[in-house]
Amino acid sequence: MAAGRTHNPKAWTWIAWPLGALPLAWVLYEGLTGASGPDPVAALVNALGWWALVLLLVCLTMRPAARVLDIPALVIWRRTFGLWMFIYASLHFLAWATLILGWDPGRLATELSKRPYIIAGAAAWLLLWPLALTSTRKSRRRLGKRWVKLHRLIFVALPLALIHQFWVQKSGFGETLAFLTVAAILIGYRLRGRFLPGK
Ligand code: HEM
């Protein structure tokens, strides 16, 4: 019985929820204790955006990792990490709009229409909405093949998020290069079936 439970991937689904919450707890802890540096607001906005992008890449890693490592539970975790990614991206937006712009309509309109890096981030965030709203099993069943097509939007959101990160980064291009490399490997893996017969 114990062995059966160990091999049931669904038994481990719940772990993805606390795991996804850990960075948020850390970011908030750092912000509240002053450990995030001289500008805690900018650090908070950046950290939330950083984790949103990391989780986006983590989500895309789940399927290949499940295959390569033979751990089916990873595919089940993908949905939870996807929702966490949306939560981090939304908190990133909310922190920016609240703590930096104070919901000033004029500043919001200017930023969202005149700054290309904000437009790229906002476009990525808007594309995440239909994915989050249709992430339930019920939606997946209801939409069938259309669900799969819809969720390919992630491959449009990803380059937009990468462009956004490239524009805003201040610590050199090393991180951008790391994000780009991981994204290129994941997209390459995804597209391999189109070019390699039998994959
Ligand atoms: C309406 C949506 C968004 C707005 C308004 C926004 C705005 C911002 C701002 C103001 C910064 C900080 C720039 C600075 O320090 O000068 C930032 C950084 C960042 N954002 Fe966004 N963003 C949005 C969506 C997203 C999304 C959807 C992602 C990823 C999925 C993302 C990922 C990042 C990353 C990775 C950083 C840089 C973090 C770092 O280098 O430490 N953002 N964003």
Helix content: over 70%
Structural class: mainly alpha
Write the element-wise H/E pattern from the N-terminal end onward: HHHHHHHHHH
Instruction: State Rg.
Output: 18 Å
The CA-CA distance between the termini, in Å, is 36 Å
How many helices? The count is 10
- Biggest beta-sheet profile: none
How many β-strand stretches? 0
* Distinct ligands, ions and cofactors found in the model: protoporphyrin IX containing FE
Tell me what portion of residues adopts beta-strand conformation: under 5%
Q: Which spans have pLDDT < 50 for at least 5 consecutive residues?
A: 1-5
Q: Mean pLDDT, nearest integer?
A: 91
Notes on the protein architecture:
The protein is an all-alpha fold. 80% of the residues lie in helices and 0% in strands. It contains ten helices and no strands. It has helices at residues 2-6, 16-33, 40-69, 73-100, 105-114, 116-133, 137-143, 145-150, 154-168, 174-195. It is globular. Residues 42, 45-46, 49-50, 52-53, 56, 89, 92-93, 96, 118, 121-122, 124-125, 161, 164-165, 168-169 line the site of protoporphyrin IX containing FE.
Name the features.
single chain, 199 residues, mainly alpha, binds protoporphyrin IX containing FE
Topology:
Layout lengths: L1 H5 L9 H18 L6 H30 L3 H28 L4 H10 L1 H18 L3 H7 L1 H6 L3 H15 L5 H22 L4
Helix pairs in contact: 2-3, 2-4, 3-4, 3-9, 3-10, 4-6, 5-6, 6-9, 9-10
The structure holds protoporphyrin IX containing FE.
